[in-house]
Design goal:
single chain, mainly beta, Immunoglobulin-like, 3 domains, seven-stranded antiparallel β-sheet, 39% strand, globular
């Protein structure tokens, strides 16, 4: 092939390139890289209407699927604005998703096109009317198996994929689905408080309430220190402005841990004496506060002059009780939580035990390394 032939071929390609949806520059670049052979144009998977959606085979899940309780009661996963009622369920962790579809192929929970929506869905339901206020779709990728972390699917051009709904006073539920299969349901409610002050920045505010008010949790950090966590809701309609409704407040706080009837741990400590610490609350939210406990009777950490923390190795078998006090201006709030250690293992609440709790919709998925404790 001589030089004239090559120039003629390139000229034809330049003219035909735009007709095939490729720019002149792209055509020339592709031709030079492939010995004058042009690559076929790639299709946009987001607009591929012929791709087939998978149908999850629910029997291929190792256990019945569930949603992490940690996310169901977190103000980080459930964003709510008490001024406007704006609600946005951001992300969740699913456990034991079906591994295959009905054709025996591996499920891909991050696969979607505009021909079909992601396979994981959340319906926000008004429990009084049964009305579905919004359907939210989620892509998912493996996190720490068997859990998957989701990402809220957003498509501004698709009215079927909202990114928020507005909630007013009422009772609601978050209903989770894999395909058409309902796997979990989490109730909550919204209460309204009116402010009679005509000069108030907000004449009314909405307070979201749920099971975060009824549970604490225990865990151990990477140093095997015992930690207790609980959610601190705060509701104060006297705000400075509509943009500063979520200002935080610190409240004095104490907590004591008993094994049977003997105190073995405490928060907080100062100069080897029991002292008040603090918990932090954000107005209109329910912040998770977690505190490391100190060993009691007090002892020094080897090689230091500081109090020793209560560690997993100190937690022998027995019945344990955590007693807490939050000192608010309106009065002291006292709570109590109980758990048992048997044969060196923390006994889970029956609702979090798959061998005992058989209703998947109300199962409490605590995952690994967390134990949830209902208030007494």
């Amino acid at each position: 092939m001589n030089k004239k032939h090559i120039i003629f071929i390139l000229y034809i390609m330049i003219l035909s390139g735009p007709l095939l949806g490729q720019s002149v520059t792209d055509r020339l670049r592709d031709a030079s890289r492939s010995g004058n052979r042009t690559a076929p144009a790639k299709s946009d998977s987001g607009n591929n209407k012929t791709e087939k959606a998978q149908i999850p085979d629910m029997s291929s899940a190792l256990q019945f699927p569930s949603v992490a309780f940690e996310d169901l009661i977190s103000d980080q996963s459930l964003y709510f604005n008490p001024i406007t009622g704006y609600f946005r369920p951001i992300k969740f962790h699913f456990y034991f998703l079906p591994e295959k579809d009905l054709e025996g192929k591996p499920m891909n929970y991050n696969n979607f096109t505009r021909a079909f929506l992601p396979y994981l869905r959340l319906d926000v339901v008004n429990k009084s009317s049964g009305q579905i206020l919004g359907k939210f779709y989620y892509r998912a990728e493996p996190y720490i198996l068997p859990s998957y972390e989701t990402t809220l699917y957003e498509d501004a051009l698709n009215p079927e994929t909202p990114t928020s709904v507005t909630l007013t006073e009422g009772s609601y539920s978050l209903d989770f689905f894999i395909g058409d299969n309902k796997i979990a349901s989490q109730p909550f409610k919204v209460e309204k408080e009116n402010n009679p002050d005509p000069y108030a920045p907000a004449r009314q505010m909405y307070w979201m309430r749920g099971e975060w008010e009824q549970y604490g949790r225990i865990t151990f950090n990477s140093y095997d220190d015992f930690m207790f966590g609980h959610y601190i809701p705060d509701r104060n309609i006297k705000i400075k402005s509509q943009s500063k409704w979520d200002e935080y407040t610190d409240y004095p706080f104490t907590a004591k841990l008993y094994r049977n009837t003997t105190m073995v741990g405490v928060f907080d400590v100062f100069d080897f004496k029991i002292s008040k610490g603090n918990v932090t609350a954000d107005n209109g939210k329910w912040r998770l506060n977690e505190n490391v406990f100190y060993k009691y009777p007090f002892a020094k950490t080897p090689g230091t002059n500081s109090n020793a923390f209560l560690k997993k190795e100190h937690m022998s078998d027995g019945d344990y009780t955590i007693e807490t006090e939050i000192f608010r201006p309106s009065g002291t709030i006292k709570n109590k939580y109980k758990f048992t250690i048997k044969s060196g293992q923390i006994i889970s609440d029956p609702r979090a035990d798959r061998s005992k709790h058989k209703d998947p919709l109300t199962f409490l998925e605590q995952g690994v390394g967390l134990w949830y404790l209902p208030k007494m």
